[in-house]
Amino acid sequence: MDRRKSIKAMFAGTVTSGFMFSGCLTDKEAELKSSDIAEGEIVAGGGYGRTPEELARDQRLVSETFFNEHEMATIAVLADLIIPADESSGSATDAGVPEFIEFIVKDMPWHQTPMRGGLMWLDHESNRRYDLEFIKASEDQQKAILDDIAYPDEVKPQFEHGAQFFSRIRNLVATGFFTSKMGIEDLGYQGNVPNVWDGVPRDVLEKHGLEYDEKILTQSIKPEERNDVMSWDDYEV
């Protein structure tokens, strides 16, 4: 199973349990999560159930910048190594994952130091091995580094910090991709989709000596009307 399919299978099993990276928080992280939000002008707005206060905060966070150009370029390379394009879907960057991560680290500040430190560790390790920054190394060289930090249970002691960083960014990439329109389509998740019910199968009715009367058939079992809003005005008991 390739990297993309492994992550897809992992995410499909957790899609109903919220963001993958929002599991256990340290006391410090919990304090940051509940920190006061800077005051600002509250603007009217809507969209996906946001209150005006939440919308204003989102707009403020989007207007701010945390990662520099080099860090964003490194995140983009990492994201596409984790979830590359395939025959069924685009890559993580095609789905806007780097921009998602940029927003998340501003929305959840406890990610900032581990993420920035991890990106620095990645460049340091790449420079140590190849005398190149990570984004300038070849894909095979990049993957060689990731192979040493991608499996926490097998990581060598000298790579523990890198493994912690990679677990964090892998979860962020997977969350960003599989909550995007592209990623949801890639999962094949349908949500609540109306189906057609044309009653209990005839063989089951016959087995129990039952049958629908004409009134039920003409008034209730009409698949062609399944999307109509029911009106009881002309219904007789």
Task: Provide the descriptors you would attach to this structure in a database record.
51% helix; 237 residues; mainly alpha; 11 helices; single chain; 2 domains
Poorly predicted sequence stretches spanning 5 or more consecutive residues: 15-46
- Tally of separate helices: 11
Name the overall outline: elongated
The main pleated sheet reads as: none
Total count of domains? 2
What proportion strand? under 5%
Spell the H/E element sequence. HHHHHHHHHHH
How many β-strand stretches? 0
Helix-strand category = mainly alpha
Distance N to C terminus: 58 Å
Helix content: 40-55%
If you had to describe this structure to a student in words, what would you say it looks like?
The protein has 237 residues and is mainly α. The chain has helices at residues 3-12, 27-33, 52-63, 69-82, 97-107, 112-130, 139-149, 160-178, 181-187, 202-207, 214-219. The model is unreliable at 15-46 (pLDDT under 50).
At a glance:
Helix content is 51%, strand content 0%. The protein is mainly α.
Helices and strands in order:
Layout (H helix, E strand, L loop, with lengths): L2 H10 L14 H7 L18 H12 L5 H14 L14 H11 L4 H19 L8 H11 L10 H19 L2 H7 L14 H6 L6 H6 L18
Helix pairs in contact: 4-5, 5-8, 6-8
